């Protein structure tokens, strides 16, 4: 029943896309498309939510006689897909609401409107697909529509490069997934997920599948070193699409990983978790370090997505490690932590991209070095953005803290794991997680401080105006949800229990029945956290302090020029900028990670030229992996060029020999 | 119920009342060690009262955030300080937040204070904020690794449970705990902006971190921030005392005599901690800002080593 409704919604979204294409001349098409997307997404959201809360672990399937004739098109709604449908459609509805206001300033709406609902439909279809063909088709549809959205402003040079890199990485990822499904389907070609789930997979095959899925889903999610497209493509798209890509599409990639590794492959082996944990830890720290070095607001946010994906994969790796050692309760805790972070990240990353879009709209500027002082001119946007910053920096009492806290609790369950490799790996990953959390808060002090605080650095920042009500509504809804998920985490954890029950046959203890709405992952003597009381205590003591001081002490106030040690300088250029703020961290971490070099050019005495400081950073991942690959591809292309100029006889013989080789391979395999 | 609520309230009041005293005591001890007479140990109270009575001089372009932050910082630090066992364990709201949440609460306070440094748009505020977050980015993970170590030894991240476990005879001497203690002390020195990381007494531009960040504050706002830093010093002193010298802590539901004894022992511990801090600060010189990262990396490595030892063997 739920499946049919959601499929109807997807069809509605697709129709919306087609209509937007047909009616592109109409002046009403912009708001019509966004309103339709918002209504449909909200409806799908409610359907998925009721399915998760009422049906629990129930499974609904539906087969349509479309697609491959011997296969049909299978759809399935279980707890996992219901949860991800919630994430997708919550983000989709808010992005549509935001688009209502933001889209009005769009110079070329016909490049966005047809693809926006289609992109939403693609993401919904991936989550519902129940056979490899439908999954890959939807996956590719999602990639292509998002590519079209990235290319919406194709006149800008950087966007063209971003689109090219994205297209390459997306097709590479789909190829890896195609091979992974091929391995899982076996020689009989059982592309149905139900058949894959039932089949026994050998250890070699599991290892190969894991590698391919990490390449395929990992490149979409942004695991280091496959993340390179992400900081290029996400900022290039219009801001509500950036929010969808960063907040939601990376989660669909995480869904793909969970679906294949936890559901289809079957019982994991412990070394699989080592790989996932190592990748997660490295991704988390490198992502945030890259983010700290950025001064483009949207790119900084995109690099933070990389970091958060790392945190999610740490949770997933822990879940795999526990599952391999039959510690199901701990595995349920780790998986719940990862999924909670998926939900949280979709909230605050969308919120932050909405905020960045509002800033972009108000100032036409993404470069933080040209902003500043926006808190005076955009008070509502800056408040919502601040909530997002606190949430993503994992500070209590907001939601980012709860999921990281759960991940730490899962790490503390790990000494019982017998394997030595994991015993050494897990505390190291714990240290990396702690490091990334601390660096994230440094990074958001920089992002908020340079953009919204201080004095305006350009006239554009000086003349900024608050954005429209639709954009503000979308931001405030997500800010409220961040707070709600942070102070009442027990409800989220309990609604996630059907997912861990379905995947791991175990769940975390029921949280909502605990007194005072605390969360207790294992036992109260071990650890507990109460968001609502923390918020209450802070609010109480702050109010008490304010009351006591204003009642009994002075409340006199005088405005005066800034003190600045007695020598204030009127020029806004004397403020700390984004790069100077990052300088201490660049010196500590950057010399190693980015080979950062600082060079001071001091003119000789008497010369009136200004002194200059040059900072050079190198992206080692790009230089060591991608540049050689590109060079190798060029080399191969040059040398295979002669294949282009053969006779038809030669071509036929090539075809013949390829066929023979493939048949031989097939016989050897079977 | 009423009784335990009263004890919880007493704990909140105790940290609030004692915090300036500890600061004053450390200053007095430092003066005595330098053969100066020094101000009275009650001077910080007078300073706070004087600041509260003065008018606030607010920079012209300061935003609403700048005026709200002192209260947020004060409230967060106070809540965090009240969660650490001082004279008793098993208080009524001890389960509200565990050690990890405690670190994160202090992280919230620092986040907002660093934002305040950026708000007016002066170069000193920026320099203070950027250095503060650099120090925090190393101190916070070191602290979390110490927490990992303690949690693995005691089987809990609940501060009250950990303190009670550390007081029990089954702990014994462990290499990992010794490493964790050194790491925690190093973090405490860095977090409280003490010598050799920062100098709380200086107003010399290039050496200051914390003081540069709060340079634009005055009047009651400055009082709140000064109070918060006193509270933070007290928090770290009580944390180290309750974890590594957990003697004399009254347990939950004990009688008034036990609580009174707990308070006495706690005062003694604070005096010892304050004296040791003054002694250490007098003996060492401040280091350059970029040597701080080496100092804190050492803390980070000690913490990591401690946690790793416990993953390798439960008895180390």
What does this structure look like?
The complex is a heterodimer of chains A (670) and B (316). By secondary structure, chain A is mainly alpha-helical. Among the domains of chain A are: 587-639, no CATH class; 640-670. Helix content of chain A is 69%, strand content 4%. Chain A has 24 helices and 5 strands. Chain A has helices at residues 2-22, 29-55, 79-102, 115-128, 132-150, 157-185, 193-198, 203-221, 230-236, 239-264, 270-292, 297-324, 328-363, 374-377, 379-392, 399-411, 420-452, 459-462, 469-487, 489-504, 531-552, 578-593, 620-639, 648-669, and strands at 60-64, 73-77, 557-560, 597-601, 612-616. In chain A, a hairpin with an 8-residue loop joins strand 1 and strand 2 (73-77). In chain A, helix 3 runs parallel beside helix 13, helix 10 packs antiparallel against helix 13 and helix 12 (297-324) packs antiparallel against helix 17 (420-452). The two termini of chain A are 40 Å apart. The model of chain A has no long low-confidence stretch (mean pLDDT 92). In chain B, helix 2 (43-53) runs antiparallel to helix 9. Chain B is globular. Chain B is an all-alpha fold and 316 residues long. The longest helix of chain B is centred in the N-terminal third of the chain and has 32 residues, at 2-33. Chain B has one domain (2-312).
